[in-house]
Amino acid sequence: MSGTAAVLGVGCAIALAWGWRQRSLLRASERDAADVLARREAMQRSLDHLAEGVALLGRDGEVLFANPAAIALLDAPPDALEDALPLERFTRPGQITDLVAGTPTDETVRRVLELGRPGGLPDLVVQVTLAPAGVGRRLLVLQDLRSDAALERRRRNFVANASHELKTPIAALIGLLDLMEDLPAAAHADLLARSQRNARALANMAEDLLQLARAEDPDWRLRPERIPAADAVSAVVEDLRPRAEAKGLRLHVDAAARGELLADRSALQTVVRNLVANAINYTDAGAVEVAVADEEFGVSITVRDTGAGIDPAILPQIFERFFRGDPAHGRASGSTGLGLAIVRNLLSRMGGRISVQSRPGEGSVFRVELPATPASPRPGAGLAEFR
User: What is the pTM of this model?
Assistant: First the structure.
């Protein structure tokens, strides 16, 4: 009996050890499976938030996986991932399927493709990368280049516009100086005065270009300080008073506000200077009125003129760079067409916003809302409202 009991005891011990071992292996397998699932879900979430489109293609070119960006860029049907659709059914643009079909499975290629209707402008410009991703699988990565292309177009347009704006006073200045050599001395005073006006136009353009570059520079930082808003605005108005009086305009400022702003003094005064100077430039008779008022959110600054007003058709364009509603009048008055673009960009940095109310023959009203601190920007900061 003792021998039998010993054998049974050994057998039970072996069975218990084997069972414990199996349970340990099962728990380890479950932990590994959970870990793999967690990593897979983390990877899925990461891919879901990528701006680039990512798609995994199977051996026969079917789409095994695609993140939301790839589905959008490839114009896939809503139920595209319910079945492993062939790529030609997954996406509309044939250039993608042609690239995949024409590339050996063991090669990596990168192409920029313009996707759209034949003979028309491209609806989409993408950089496509196709690379091996294991046995019989390939990875398709799509980068939307539309924003880059739009940025490059804006850069080219800006350079072209700036060159054109600088060319006009430069050509006039060269012509006037050349005339001095040919005309009698009696005409030199007039030629010199006209040359000086063009030189000032060049200086104004250079200054405004520098201000706009600074306002649009993401690395440029404001230097906030406590500023009595009324005092800062009044100082700008007084600087511009001789210009208004030279045109016979009344320039009035109501600076009853007592509030202070945590703001960059230079940026604030640049905003006010551009708005008041614009009002003077485009008003031939009457008055320009500037008001500074305390508000619950901070301070409002209103610039009202009795000028010709702005046509509603062009009102949304007035904050574009180099835009002038009346180019001849604008150049004659010394306007560079950059003032309101500078205003909009600075207000965006300062957390402020602007509204415009204007009708032909009724003058214009520009109202700026500035928060007491940039940490509490106004809703829609940097945007313009038209009324």
Answer: 0.54
